[in-house]
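ok here's Pyruvate dehydrogenase E1 component alpha subunit, seq below lol
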Amino acid sequence: MTQPGPRTGGPLTDEGLVQLLTPTGERVSHPEYDAYAADLDADRLRAMYRDMVLTRRFDTEATSLQRQGELALYAQCLGQEAAQTGSGHALAPQDHVFPSYREHGVAQARGLEMTDVLRLFRGIDHGGWDPADHNFHLFTLVIGSHALHATGYAMGVQRDGLVGTGDPDRDTAVVAYFGDGATAQGDVSEALVFASVNQAPVVLFCQNNQWAISEPTTKQSRVPIADRAPGFGVPSVRVDGNDVVATYAVTRQALERARSGGGPTFVEAFTYRMGAHTTSDDPTRYRSREEEEHWRRRDPIERLRLHLESVGELPEVFQAELAGEADAFGAHVRDTVRAMGRPSAASMFDHVYATRHGVVDAEREWFARYEASFTDAGQTPAGGHR
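and the structure came out like this:
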């Protein structure tokens, strides 16, 4: 990849953004990244479009379920579908993903049963899937910590001889997804240090959605987020995160570099969080309607739709079938979540450690006596499940 010099703009500049689809869906050329998007024929683009549409439907259903009291909380990825779907489709089956907590589009691209994602937000468990099934690790709620987990895993992959062998079915890369706010955490800086000095096969993928809850990117950095990485010796690239084709191409290059032994890459996907940070957040308190409308006109799904229509590759029959699939998917999400039931409060002690632990056992026994004290008095403890 070509490493640019320092950029003159601030963190919201569009300088240096790789773009292959304009907001109106026009395919534009790029001297470096056209080659990495050359394999995206109409079938693959429609597959990306499908995943983006279903991810948004999942978002809509999960948000509604939270408003109805079926989920305790939910973190939307509304507006970030292209960054997630494009990068997710660039992954090889053997690659590993370390997500934060809103990578629903990547989960969809990796083939997860999407209702398992909602077990966390319903409070059923700490993550409802086996990471080994799709090489998609559990959601991480501690901001930035998983950048270190991913880098360490990549170092292990490297030591296992799964990098630079020349076998495309064996060589492995690792991706960590995090937001712009996470780059202010020490964990991400430490991950950059370890990734750089060890030439770890890791892609540090930052979805710069411009808001760390209510804190804008302009209060986190005076330069583009991607410009932080070269100081650690890690090459970086900025991509239009609402352009699914460009995101695919940039991520594919970074993954190929990692798998071949070329070391880490920092990708900044410049996008926008069109929804709230989570369902407990009210973005109208800190950003304007004008800003939101500006980014709605750059909707990533609409961009790909316009492109496919312009080249005659979005037939009505496909759209009708996808609409039916989305409706069935929505019903599946609603029915599955409502059938999950509620765990007992004592189940919080079940999976703290893999084996018995004396402190946890003592806390479990105390909690049992505490709940029993209410039952003996004919009362139900606050937050109880009786």
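fwiw Residues 131 and 233 are 30 Å apart (CA to CA). kinda neat tbh
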